[in-house]
Amino acid sequence: MKHLYLMRHGETLFNVRRKIQGWCDSPLTENGINQAKAAKEYLKNIHFDHYYSSTSERCCDTLEIVTDYKATYKRLKQIKERNFGTFEGESEDLNPQKNSGLNYDDIFPYYGGEYRQDVVNRMYHTLEDIMNKEDHFNVLAVSHGGACYAFLSAIVDNDTLKQIGPVSNCNIFHYGYDNGKFQFIELIKPQTNGE
After folding, report:
1. How far apart are CA 77 and CA 191, in angstroms?
2. pTM reported for the whole predicted model
3. Which residue of 11, 19, 124, 144 is most buried, as measured by CB atoms within 10 A?
4. 174 is catalytic
5. Edge-to-edge strand order for the sheet containing 50-54?
């Protein structure tokens, strides 16, 4: 069985300031850097044969910290966060509220953003293509909270999604890949010294 470790980037300035952050970008905070260092410590004994990152700076920076700046990696637009259109960089207060009857697909696609299913499709097909490569046995890919969750939703049922809950910064989804199928194994939550 092959293994995919799909990780969310470390905490960013926009995360702290509660800004909608999809295709726009902001730098890692000191806490985000420490989260990446905690992930590095957790993953240090796993031999990865390939590394991938979203093209967003926050993901590249996270991966470079995790690999101690020593790994070659490929940047892929296809594993970027959802595009929120003209809402990019605006307050998270504009997000649909729970119990409002609205979801992201009711708003963001009409303002230049993506549909949820578009994110699911591009994440799934891209990661499937990666894991189908003959020499890819242990892969680490750094992406985004919403994108990671979209990918997970294509693999597990709704009850499992609810049990897993929100995706924190630098959480790592461990998947097995065998005979063309992904299997969710575990959610890894590396802890920083302050947590």
Report:
1. 28
2. 0.95
3. 144
4. no
5. 74-76, 50-54, 138-143, 2-8, 172-178, 181-188
Given 3, 11, 50, 81, which residue is catalytic? 81
Chain mean position to CA 101: 26
User: SS3 for 19?
Assistant: strand
Q: Which residue in 130, 71, 134 sits closest to 62, CA to CA?
A: 71
Where does the pLDDT of residue 166 fall: very low under 50, low under 70, confident under 90, or very high at 90 and above? confident
Helix (H) or strand (E) holding 130: helix 116-131
The model's pLDDT over 55-76, given as tens digits with 9 standing for 90+, comes to: 999 999 999 999 999 999 999 9
Rounded distance between C-alpha atoms, residue 1 and residue 9, angstroms: 26
What six digits make up the tokens of 16?
Answer: 């702290």
SS3 at position 125: helix
- From residue 157, alpha-carbon distances to 46, 153, 161 in Å are 28, 7, 6
Does 114 qualify as catalytic in the annotation? no
Q: Which of 3, 9, 136, 144 is catalytic?
A: 9
* Pairing status of strand 181-188 against strand 74-76: unpaired
